[in-house]
Amino acid sequence: MSTPAAADLTAASSGAPARGARFRYEGFEIVEAADTLVCRYSLDGRPFVERVAFPGATGWGRPEVAAAARLVYLLAAVSYYKTGAPPVVDLGETAVTDREREFLRTFYVEGLGEFAYRNGIDLRDLVIEGPRLDAPLRAAYSPAPGRPLVPFGGGIDSIVTVELLKPRFPAAALFVMNRPGDRFDAIERPAEVTGLPVLRAEREIDPDVLRSRELGFLNGHVPVTGVLSAVAVMCAVLDGRDAVVMSNEWSASVPTLEFDGRAVNHQWSKSAEFEQAFQDVLADALGPSFAYFSALRAYSELWIARRFAELTGYHSTFRSCNRAFAIDRSRRWETWCGECDKCCFIDLILAPFLPTAALEDVFGGREPLADESLAERFRTLVATSPDAKPWECVGDIGESRAALLLAAERPDRSTTPLLQALAAEVAVLPDRPDTATLLQPLGSGLAPATYAL
């Protein structure tokens, strides 16, 4: 686990910014004529409206759809709560069970852990007010089995999940969430390679949130995977599917850093803690016939990379560089940038399993390991630098070190100076990673028996 970088420590201790007083859930409605869920919230009386469209969806009047919509409404609020991060969340007229209240509070406090840390706010004072349900409002959802929906981001994790599921579940489909009228080439190209149909949701965030800096709102990372999970569940229910299968790996549960005696995890809504808690809430809402789980929970990034290396049909289409996903299209890269933390990690984790020439092709001649100016970025990944682990969806220190040492043993890497220099630094450390263990399952995962790999 990393310790905070000096700059972040300064930011986190320089005095908390002004917070709002009360965030309120104002209600949600399904507008069937527009295939849209509309969610309304407010911060100290300032309104926010979110719309999530499901183009071409049918069966809106079913009780299980309303149950799924309610969960989207509960979780999507986090994008608006963060604008003022008040100590009180008012559920308005929305009654929740004790389990839902506790889950929601944890979703805010832990899911916004990075946001709170970087803004110098302590969210542990959060109180959730509102009416109480004595028992869950369970919908009797009975979908046909064997029709999973796989949220797909075009990276190595979701590609491996798809290829694990396709042979056993030919009725599988992909799920993609994007803004209205906007699609990312980095997702669409590998999605086409899968050969599976794509179900879509179009999430339209209130435009004021996108003007946070201009309007003086607090800003920062939100647990977007949790929101996407709820939207994917609603999409699955609308299409009569029995499972949402995520691609969150074992190390997503490893905290990014520890501060003030608390673990802070950039990937919290990808963690096993979130997965288990959301499973429980979904069971109350939809019953036992619906499953939500990660197919990769028991596996390391190193295991996933080895599997992906065999899937050569995707090597020219996948792209995990964050600059491919810029909201502003004019700033969106059509290639790997070859220098960001994600590019460095993907190159590092694949280097043990792919030839140097193959990775040069992947990165269009800008392979990060060939660029000695990126040495400090790699040192943060393998923790030979005093800087903290980056606030990114990257593997943990052990996985990165194991990948580095394995790659350095390849004959075609003997003349990669940066790689060899970094490997020499890691090789003398006392806590050498157990590579053999990382290439085996690291647990049992949380999948139901029907979907167990």
TrEMBL record:
It catalyses: UDP-N-acetyl-alpha-D-muramoyl-L-alanyl-L-glutamate + ATP + H2O = UDP-N-acetyl-alpha-D-muramoyl-L-alanyl-D-glutamate + AMP + diphosphate + H(+). Keywords: Cell cycle, Cell division, Cell shape, Cell wall biogenesis/degradation, Endonuclease, Hydrolase, Isomerase, Nuclease, Peptidoglycan synthesis. Pathway: Cell wall biogenesis; peptidoglycan biosynthesis. Its EC number is 5.1.1.23. Residues 318-429 form the MurL C-terminal domain. GO terms for molecular function: endonuclease activity. The keyword Phosphoprotein does not apply. Residues 19-294 form the MurL N-terminal domain. Cell wall formation. Catalyzes epimerization of the terminal L-glutamate in UDP-N-acetyl-alpha-D-muramoyl-L-alanyl-L-glutamate. HAMAP family: MurL. Belongs to the MurL family. This is UDP-N-acetyl-alpha-D-muramoyl-L-alanyl-L-glutamate epimerase. The lineage of its organism: Bacteria, Bacillati, Actinomycetota, Actinomycetes, Motilibacterales. The gene is murL.
